[in-house]
Design goal:
Strand order of the largest sheet: 1-2
Strand content: under 5%
Order of helices and strands: HHHHHHEHHEHHEHHEHHHHHHHHHHHHH
Mean pLDDT: 75
Radius of gyration: 30 Å
Number of domains: 3
Largest sheet: 2 strands, antiparallel
Low-confidence stretches: 249-319, 328-380
């Protein structure tokens, strides 16, 4: 795939800049080439120019007196001016261009492997002083550049072997990817842009996307994306399909242990429902998993309480919400809740009523999303006064002033949906339930970017309310 994209980009550029003349940087700047390629070519041309200057010397001949001081000063001035006008020679241009496109493409698609290959080449060791200057020639994937520099700083006093450097380098990159608040689609953006220039389309081959995430140490993201593509039999993905696949990938934070095999998530239920016949999908997809023996439940409950006692170090917001999307049902809530669908209304949760699944399913509306069919809807409304009080309790005085912004960006411009969510959140009594509700009822349903400023503002406000309740 890398070679195919390289050749497409090269042939496009060589038609624009044929090897029939020399090219200066100003010539290339007028050709609207990719900024990362122009940056790389600039570094290469400056390096070649410096090397050529070192080869030039003041001509020597017995017919001239070289002791004249002005000759040396004039020569030095000439060299300075000469360095300001480097060009790629016409007879070398095609090879130089192809090499530059190849390196730039490799770094964009497989940045970690490309840096290692370029840094070490055929050598067994590397002096760390080379690293900062080398990675500066690359424009994209700043986190990879920073990881390389940080890794080199750990080997300041001696040359490192490839194995030593690669171990530290890959660890630095994968740690960044696991901890970053940056949306995964943003990390992939340079890849999408390059593929667009090469193919002229807005889709990317699944193998390219998964290879990129695998290269930067996000193997579980690559696996989940590949699984999503296989589920829908996709060879290529557009932006919307990537968002869907990457949203599923973020639901299990990178590098975290696998969840309990008995835990049923919304994603699992939806996958199961797709594989069943319509009449049996609803009941089987959301059926309760086998419950552990009482002794096992006591142990598991103790572990849950132990894990939740450290309130002084809350998990990062993005990680907490992704864990909610895959969290098992809260066993301490009682068997009455375990037997119910996970996405029912908080009003039904608090009521604790035992009702058959059939009462939650609207079989006359097969096009309604599965999770929504299971959400119990109350028939009682609330007065404007009641809603205003609920909104104040959930969001606080200052944050609720952003009501219009929340409705527009998080609730698909639906005031009714915003109203329902606020009323539901007001009736929940703990942050664990509320965060799971927001993750499924708002973020997943409306495909909200949980890293956006408006989403962070909303969830921080809600969390503050429940933290205050717990403090009391």
């Amino acid at each position: 795939m890398v070679d195919q994209i390289t050749e497409k980009l090269y042939h496009h550029l060589v038609r624009k800049f044929p090897p029939t003349s020399s090219y200066s940087l100003s010539d290339l700047a007028t050709g609207n080439i990719r900024s990362e390629l122009f940056r790389y070519l600039t570094f290469i041309l400056e390096e070649r120019a410096d090397a050529e200057i070192d080869r030039l010397h003041l001509p020597e001949s017995s017919w001239f007196d070289y002791s004249e001081p002005s000759l040396h000063s004039d020569w030095a001035e000439f060299v300075v001016k000469l360095k300001k006008h480097p060009v790629f020679p016409s007879d070398l241009w095609a090879d130089e261009l192809h090499q530059a496109v190849s390196v730039m493409t490799g770094f964009t698609l497989l940045p970690v492997g490309s840096v290692l290959g370029q840094l070490f080449g055929g050598f067994a060791t590397l002096h760390p002083a080379r690293v900062p200057g080398f990675v500066e020639r690359f424009e994209t994937h700043s986190f990879v550049r920073e990881a390389a520099i940080q890794s080199a700083s750990q080997f300041e006093s001696f040359e490192s072997s490839r194995e030593q450097f690669e171990t530290v380098f890959r660890s630095e990159v994968s740690t960044f990817v696991a901890d970053t608040h940056e949306p995964l689609l943003n990390l992939l953006q340079p890849v999408l842009s390059l593929v667009h220039d090469a193919s002229g389309t807005d889709v990317v081959h699944v193998e390219i996307a998964t290879a990129f995430f695998d290269d930067i140490g996000a193997r579980d993201v690559a696996d989940r994306l590949h699984r999503h593509a296989g589920r829908y039999r996709l060879d290529v993905m557009d932006t919307d399909q990537l968002i869907d696949g990457l949203s599923l990938s973020r639901s299990t934070p990178i590098g975290t242990p696998a969840r309990d095999a008995n835990a049923v998530t919304t994603e699992d239920a939806l996958e199961a429902a797709h594989s069943l016949e319509p009449e049996e999908s609803a009941e089987q997809a959301f059926s309760t998993p086998p419950q552990p023996a009482p002794a096992e439940m006591d142990v598991q409950h103790a572990e849950v309480e132990s894990d939740s006692t450290d309130d002084d170090k809350p998990a990062p917001l993005w990680r907490a919400f992704q864990q909610k999307l895959n969290a098992p049902v809260n066993e301490s809530a009682g068997k009455a809740q375990l037997s119910k669908p996970k996405n029912q209304s908080p009003r039904e949760i608090d009521a604790g009523k035992e009702e058959p699944l059939s009462e939650y399913v609207d079989s006359s509306s097969p096009t309604v999303p599965i999770w929504e069919r299971f959400r119990a809807r109350t028939t009682t409304g609330s007065s404007p006064e009641d809603f205003g009080a609920a909104e104040l309790r959930v969001l606080g005085e200052s944050v609720r002033q952003r009501r219009d912004e929340y409705i527009r960006n998080m609730f698909a411009n639906s005031p009714d949906e915003y109203h329902d969510v606020i009323i539901d959140l007001d009736q929940l009594t703990d942050w664990d339930s509320a965060s799971q509700y927001i993750a499924e009822r708002v973020f997943r349903k409306n495909r909200v970017n949980i890293y956006s400023e408006v989403a962070v503002s909303f969830t921080n406000a809600v969390e503050q309310r429940y933290r205050a309740i717990q403090a009391d």
